[in-house]
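Figure 2 data, in text form.
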Amino acid sequence: MGGWIGFGAALYNPERFHSLIIGRQHPYAQSLDELREFLRTGIINGHRAFIAQWDRDIGPLTLK
């Protein structure tokens, strides 16, 4: 989220910046609809449904 804030600050206040370095982020908007739907599953159906969906879509959580 910090990258988005940095890009927004530079976009709307360019006079405040001499340069800007942001790691692992791009300046193009992304849809967060898929993430929102994923989180909505956990909110509506509980943590067990969230974990089951996580296991199905991403893979099992492992502790190191």
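Caption note: The chain is about 55% helix and 0% strand.
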